[in-house]
Design a protein that fits this description.
82% of the residues lie in helices and 0% in strands. By secondary structure, the chain is mainly α. α5 packs parallel to α8.
Length: 426
Amino acid sequence: MTRKVNLERDTLWLSSADMLALLVGIAVHVVLSRAFTDGDYGRWILLLDLFYVTATLVDLGLPTLIGRDGERLGSGAHLLVHRCLHIQVRFAFPIIAISAILGWLWVGESTAWLIASIILALSACVQILTYAHRAALRSLGESRQEALVRFVDRGATAIGIILASWQFGAHPIALALATFFGPIGAMLLAIQLGESRLSSVNEGVELETSKTNPRGLLKLGFPFLLASIALVANVRIEKLMLGMFSSTVSVENFQIAWLAFIAGYAPILSLRAVMLSWFGEVRNDTEKLWYRAKRATIVIGIASIPGFFIGGWIGMEALMKIFPDYATESSIVFSWLLIAWVLYLFASVSLTLVQVSDHPMRYAILLWFGILADFIACWYLIPGSVNPAEQAAFAAIIGAFVVLMASTIEVWRLHSKDAFSFTVEP
């Protein structure tokens, strides 16, 4: 039984799961921000963000290949998932060890923080290992099942952290172990759902991803690896730079505003993930591809208005009521991050068009342009600033604007011959 990818339906499934997960995540951060003292909450945030970035190396860009080609591969997607996981696991162990030591050297102060760093690094890598089956589910039209995996990931983590905080307070090892519950549960569920769905798929076509050797897969996935790292670093570079040039208190202020921002950014990532499979189905048919791009642009334009005003109002109210100790500074930071949100939203279609083109490396380059602009802006704005968290938000706007302009120019350059050939899809 075949279930096709649908832009609106699948984006709604993934976005809904992300919103529920984020609400749960906010509850977790309420617990953590009140449990930790003396800047330890900021230290915890820096460790998590560092490990999310380093663990993305385990991704290797391979889940993106599955998400792009899974529907056309048919039964061949099952073998591709297994081959990708076999490669990823081999890379995971050294990444866990190296990133844990780096994290402890940066923010650790005791043996307890070293052990917590190892557990958090392991947790981040396990989460990455769920992506192969998640991408396969999404490419086969089962975003509802991927949504369940996402929610289990966050939900189990939240329950674990709340229980650990209740029993052990702000002990870093206990909280790190609790953080591991979600990824391991999500991985087991993703394997069960993914294997069941993949085993029932009909024959498909043979593509380059289905017949190349492991080294060839790594080569095909490399542009998407760069892009995956960029996507993770893109929403964390400001906090990492605040950790370098300011204090953990500034990290905490930015983090609280970031929680409200990421509630709106997660649906953008869900939309891009669905568009990757949706555009990927017709990547060799220019007329259908441009029709779908136009349709996606209309959906985004409509969604941006309530997203900015209603989402902004909800975010402000949430900051005031849930994090009163941080509300004064964080509300200002969030108001600036809303502008970056709009810019990232409108960049989604052009970025995905470049991603499914015959030049995926340019997609990674575009994202890194934005990170470089953000990095330079942080380097210039944060040191010596009276309000470093607010300056970091300005840097985020600059990075988002660079991505929007560069991706738009690149799309028109790649598809200039067919830019005005929008037709109704049969």
